[in-house]
Structures are given as structure tokens and as C-alpha cells.
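User: If only I could read C-alpha cells as easily as an amino acid sequence. Underneath my words sits a plain record pairing an amino acid chain with its C-alpha cells. This is the protein in question:
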Amino acid sequence: MTQGLHTDDPAALTRHIESRFHARHREQLPALAALAEKVETVHFGDDHVPEGLADLLQRMIGALEVHMKKEELILFPAIRKGGGPGIGTPIAVMRADHDDHAQDVAEIRRLTGGLGLPEGACRSWTALYVGLGEFISDLEEHIRLENNVLFPPFETEAAHV
């Protein structure tokens, strides 16, 4: 997924994260929330319906938007300037947000039975789970890139300031 990406250039990596992941999450989540609402409404009472999924995705839209704005307006510009004193604090906040996002993903998996479609699932239900699989994969790669590639050099720097 990061083929051709220069992960040793933090400024380029921040731009990649914004264009590849931030833009994609903003595109994916509202459509998924609407699909979840449709599936929950049409299949109300079905034992397999992922009840509460639409509400969870709506909350995630807000939480991810706040998270991405903090990166775009505060952390990424600081990284593009080479870091500096105090950068450890916003990175710690982002890591805490990432932990929250991971809990939300675990809840999506719980509500959907691991994205396992019930027999005879309609097209909307199928599209919802396929889309959720793509979103989760994108979000996990986004978090991995930040936690394991982008942040560590700046955390090391911050620890020595």
C-alpha cells in the first residue's frame, strides 16, 4: 500500500496521509453510515441486523473529522517544519485518538459478527460490509503509518529536548 512512498520524508508522508487516507475516510464514512441506517431500518427485527452500527458510524464521522483536523492544522504543519519542542504532546493526543478508533473498529466487528453476512443478505447489506471492510483496512493502515513510521522519529527527538 505504501509502494513508491518515501517513508523517510516526513513532509511527503503527511501529504500522502492527507490525500490517501483523510480524503478517503471523509468519502467513506457518510456513505457507510447511510447504508447502515438503511440496513437497520429495512431489516429491523432480524437477528443478524447490526443494531447500533449507524449511530456508531455517525459518532466516528465526528471523531475522525476532529482528529484529522488536529493533524492537518496543528501536527502535520509542525512535522513539515521539522518538529521541535512540544511536538510530543500532540503526538500523544493522536496516539490516544488512534486507540479510541481501534476500540470503534472492534465495536464494528462485534456488531457485524466480524463482517459476516447472513445467508441471503441483500445488496445494501453486502455493500455495507464490503465498504466497512475497505474502511477498516484503510483506517488501520493510516494508523499504522502514523504510529510506526511518522511519529517515532519525532518522539525520539522530543524525548531528547
Remarks:
- The chain has a mean pLDDT of 92.
- The helical segments are 10-42, 53-80, 88-111, 123-159.
- The radius of gyration is 18 Å.
- The chain has four helices and no strands.
